[in-house]
């Protein structure tokens, strides 16, 4: 991680008021795909990691039973809480949580894990640990949208901020999911440096016929 958790939390809290208006077209396209692929049922609990102001959490809440929105920035979470109240959503819980320590009760059932444009702040070994933690929740589906490389990025025009971001290759992320017993069923190429990856637990995939829909 190129900055500490505390440094990232402070940075995002400072930009919370303007955060929603500052995002790129690729961010919004990635978020839309994460929402589309999450597909929670009315009885599902969704864990949204790096939830920010709630772009994913608030969008999936009407279709889910509960949404556990976790972030490290109190400023971002306060904005998310405000938006949830305005939308009349009472099933979204914003609370402090890190990728590798999301502060979810061990007895809490988690069915779907989502995250958009957040995991790339971690180094590759930390990403693998975070994906292990996601898998340990027992979720049947994980949907990750993130800055990730399909090929070598143009060093003169990186999509990301090298001083604060540490993106992985798509292959690294896919391998991390498969090593945890998940099948990667979809890879969406939003941009040369932005991917949406859908991973499903093997037994859940088998129960619905074992179909995959890989695309780039």
Please describe what this structure looks like.
With 216 residues, this protein is α/β, with parallel strands linked by helices. The chain is 35% helix and 23% strand. The chain contains eight helices and eight strands. The protein has helices at residues 5-14, 16-19, 25-38, 57-60, 74-87, 124-136, 170-179, 202-207, and strands spanning 45-49, 66-71, 92-96, 112-116, 141-149, 168-169, 182-191, 194-201. Strands 1, 2, 3, 4, 5, 6, 7 and 8 form an eight-stranded mixed β-sheet that branches. α6 packs parallel to α7. It is globular, with a radius of gyration of 16 Å. It starts with a helix and ends in a 9-residue tail after the last helix. The mean pLDDT is 87.
Provide a concise account of the structure shown.
The chain has 216 residues and is of the alpha/beta class. It has 8 helices and 8 strands. β7 and β8 form a beta hairpin.
Described by the principal axes of the CA atoms, the overall outline is globular
Q: Between the first and last Cα atoms, what is the distance in angstroms?
A: 28 Å
Low-confidence stretches: none
Q: Classify the beta-strand content into a percent band.
A: 15-25%
The whole-angstrom Rg is 16 Å
Biggest sheet overview: 8 strands, mixed
Number of strands: 8
Order of helices and strands: HHHEHEHEEHEEHEEH
Proportion in helices: 25-40%
Q: Mean pLDDT, rounded to whole units?
A: 87
How many separate helices?
8
Structural class estimated from helices and strands: alpha/beta
Topology:
Elements: H1 5-14, H2 16-19, H3 25-38, E1 45-49, H4 57-60, E2 66-71, H5 74-87, E3 92-96, E4 112-116, H6 124-136, E5 141-149, E6 168-169, H7 170-179, E7 182-191, E8 194-201, H8 202-207
Parallel strand pairs: 1-2, 1-4, 2-3, 4-5, 5-6
Antiparallel strand pairs: 5-8, 7-8
